[in-house]
Amino acid sequence: MNDKNRILAKRIGMSLFGVIICAISVGIFKIAALGVDPFQSLMAGLDELIPIPFGTLYVIVNVVLLLFSLIFDRSRIGIATFINLFLLGYITQFTYEFLQTVIVDPNYVVRFACLIVGIVIICFGSALYMTADLGVSTYDAVAIVFSYKWKLGKFQYIRICTDLVCVIAGCALFLLAGGTIGQIPTIAGIGTIITAFFMGPLIELFNRLVARPLLGIK
After folding, report:
1. How far apart are CA 102 and CA 208, in angstroms?
2. How far apart, in whole angstroms, are the C-alpha atoms of residue 127 and residue 122?
């Protein structure tokens, strides 16, 4: 195997492992029930409303988003996009269902500990996935199309808007499915706020310490 193929194999491995790690972290977030990242807030609302397994629902939603990207800008779609699409939902579902048998009726200390573990793990997985640079998630691609293809604004501001839409829509769907206002912090709470403000620096830390060195990037 030449160096080019070796690097590609390493990047694919990083993408695969990164997605698996991220999926496990989402399952941990769900056990913590203190809020998830914005896109998962939307998925949580849909999950409450639509009576199909979470893994299958995740694939369906992401196929719709994938079609959007394939129509308007397919340049950011790659191997990692499909790894994310087909694996993340099912691994999240398995992780959550397994943890429910291990962590039964957790108190706030356990839930907060799960939240911290989930944040660290998702940042580590994201660093591997992003540094491998083999395609973005279908949700990430939406903001990229709005920002770089349609020139609607700077990416960071467009991303804030898409995140807000996801959180608001997720909460509305959750209430529509019969949830109460008092339960909303379980899908859009302190964990959502922490991921919004602290994921970036933690991902960069793991990029610098782990992901870039794996590919020989300084």
Report:
1. 34
2. 8
Distance of CA 103 to the CA centre of its chain: 22
Nearest to 136 by CA among 58, 72, 81, 87: 81
Residue 79: partners with Cβ closer than 8 Å, 6 or more residues away: 12, 15, 134, 135
- Could you tell me the pTM of the whole model? 0.91
Which tokens belong to 135? 């395609």
- Is the Cα dihedral 160, 109, 201, 25 positive or negative? negative
pLDDT digits (tens, 9 = 90+) for 36-62: 999 999 999 999 999 999 999 999 999
Contact at 8 Å (CB) between 22 and 61? no
Residue pair 108/189 in contact (Cβ under 8 Å)? The answer is: no
DSSP secondary structure letter of residue 179: -
On whether the CB atoms of residues 191 and 32 are closer than 8 A, the answer is yes
Q: How deeply is 209 buried, as exposed, middle or buried, from its count of CB atoms within 10 A (0-12, 13-18, 19+)?
A: exposed
Which three-class secondary structure string do you get for 76-110? CCCHHHHHHHHHHHHHHHHHHHHHHHHCCCCCHHH
Amino acid at site 103: I
Question: CA–CA separation, 173 vs 50, rounded Å?
Answer: 10
- Name which residue leads in pLDDT, 88 or 196: 88
